Amino acid sequence: MGPDPNWTDDNDFGADLDPISREAVTWFAAMHADDVPKADQIAFRAWLRRDDRHRAVYKQVERLWSGASELPIVKTRRNTARLAVTRRALGKGVLAAMIGGGAWVTYQQHPFADYRTGTGERRTVTLADHSTVEMAGSTVLSVDFGPRLRLVTLHRGEAYFSVAPEQSRPFVVKAAAGRTMALGTSFNVDYISDDDVRITVARHAVDVRVGAADARLDAGSQLTYGRESIGDPQHIDPVSAFGWRDGRLVFLSQPFGRVIASLNRWRPGRLMVMGSALAARPVTLIVDLEKSGNILATLENTLPIRAVNVTPYLTLVFEA
Length: 320
Known about the structure:
There is one protein chain. This protein is an alpha+beta fold. It folds into 3 domains: 13-107, no CATH class; 115-236, Jelly Rolls (Sandwich); 247-319, Phage tail protein beta-alpha-beta fold (3-Layer(bab) Sandwich). 26% of the residues lie in helices and 33% in strands. The protein contains 10 helices and 18 strands. The protein has helices at residues 19-31, 38-50, 52-68, 72-75, 95-100, 102-107, 238-241, 256-263, 276-280, 295-302; strands spanning 115-116, 123-126, 132-135, 140-145, 150-162, 171-175, 178-182, 186-193, 196-203, 205-210, 213-218, 221-225, 234-235, 248-255, 270-273, 282-288, 305-311, 314-319. The strands form 3 sheets. Strands 1, 2, 3, 4, 5, 6, 7, 8, 9, 10, 11, 12 and 13 form a 13-stranded mixed beta sheet that branches. Strands 15-18-17 form a 3-stranded mixed beta sheet. A two-stranded antiparallel sheet has the order 14-16. A hairpin with a 2-residue loop joins strand 17 (305-311) and strand 18. The chain is elongated and about 70 Å long. The two termini are 28 Å apart.
């Protein structure tokens, strides 16, 4: 598989990637072309077998594409039978826009939600029952209050709930597969992904349920749940758990992937960790939200990482 003028041109972001990442993206384009020569198929399988890093990075590219394949910018390039992916289609004009540009943001907007915040924005909302919700950056939620239940759906982001007590009408926050119920309390819900939703209680207690599993969580504790299970409660430091409300993010031995997901709510563009080992690495970090635009330089100076700017909207973070 030789160089292709449709892939390499002036200002091509691929030139800034490391060789393995550049090869992975190019192979992905080649394997999704309309007619893949047998020789290319054989060479591709040999490339995958040659190095474990090849397989790991290629899987990252596949995940990027699968997350973007339903975006409007991609749908406009579908023909009647299938999605035609070529080297040109995976150049800066499409791949970069899909995974880092406005189309990705539009896809996650939840247009019928009741309340939302933009990147870096904080907002406090008073609900009809006089409960209040403090919303972190890039947060979207919906409210559905009925005669027997006060339901809030957190579509994405992070929010701190101060619940007005009503014994006859529980207050429930739905996030991913779980529900957190309170009668009158204060608690925080941090929705990183469907497998990483963190509940932290400031006052009184809440009940957390995922499927048939449930757990009681008291003040000063937090737990994390996923699609099918609930983690054990852990004691926490309130200063670090609720720091975003005072304009700072505090991470104490947190996985780097989770740190980056939180930072993406507060700074323009999107940071993406490339590699599961790097995403799992524990990091301790304090971020002043007023200076979050400089955080990437700080990370590069303090951690063994290397950042590659794909577009103004997307930066890939690799292990150095």
